[in-house]
């Protein structure tokens, strides 16, 4: 059994910063790609950022230059540093990890709310 636990969501003013964390635990042999999606009310889920096991990153155009994804492989944890937040960043953020156990499966965090408002 693999679990992903997220933390760090909060209410923040426009222009502010937040750091999300997502820690994986359980019977893990290795973790391949990790990443973050978000979903705002009434909108489709959006892929925000991904990071491979060797640190190669990719970002959606909407967050490029403002968000930074990173990971600590020793801790099985992925982070999302969000700077210069805008109201349109308001959403529930979900982390995922492609985990090798006895097979490769995608696991999801429970979601954390990020609200950007004055």
Shape: elongated
Percentage of residues in DSSP E strands: over 45%
- Percentage of residues assigned to helices: under 10%
Average pLDDT confidence is: 97
Gyration radius, to the nearest Å?
A: 14 Å
Distance between the termini: 40 Å
Largest sheet: 7 strands, mixed
Task: State the order of secondary-structure elements, H for helix, E for strand.
Answer: EEEEEEEEEEE
Structural class: mainly beta
Helical segment count: 0
How many strands appear in the DSSP assignment? Answer: 11
Unreliable stretches (pLDDT < 50, length at least 5) are: none
Describe this structure in words.
It is elongated, with a radius of gyration of 14 Å. The protein has 118 residues and is mainly β. It has strands spanning 2-7, 11-12, 18-26, 30-39, 46-51, 57-59, 67-72, 77-82, 91-100, 104-108, 112-116. Helices cover 0% and strands 58% of the residues. Strands 2, 4, 5, 6, 9, 10 and 11 form a seven-stranded mixed sheet that branches. Strand 9 (91-100) and strand 10 (104-108) form a beta hairpin. It is built from no helices and eleven strands.
Summarize this structure as a short list of keywords or feature phrases.
118 residues, mainly beta, 0% helix
In short:
The protein is an all-beta fold.
Architecture blueprint of SSEs:
Blueprint: E1 2-7, E2 11-12, E3 18-26, E4 30-39, E5 46-51, E6 57-59, E7 67-72, E8 77-82, E9 91-100, E10 104-108, E11 112-116
Parallel strand pairs: 2-11
Antiparallel strand pairs: 1-3, 3-8, 4-5, 4-9, 5-6, 7-8, 9-10, 9-11
């Amino acid at each position: 059994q693999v679990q992903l636990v997220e933390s760090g969501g909060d209410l923040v003013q426009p222009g502010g910063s937040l750091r999300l964390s997502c820690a994986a635990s359980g019977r893990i042999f290795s973790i391949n790609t990790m990443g973050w999606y978000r979903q705002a009310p009434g909108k489709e889920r959006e892929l925000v950022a991904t990071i491979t096991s060797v640190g190669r990153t990719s970002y959606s155009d909407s967050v490029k230059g403002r968000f930074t994804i990173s990971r600590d492989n020793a801790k099985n944890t992925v982070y999302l540093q969000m700077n210069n937040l805008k109201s349109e960043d308001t959403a529930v953020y979900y982390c995922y990890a492609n985990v090798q156990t006895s097979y490769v499966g995608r696991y999801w965090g429970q979601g954390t709310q990020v609200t950007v408002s004055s």
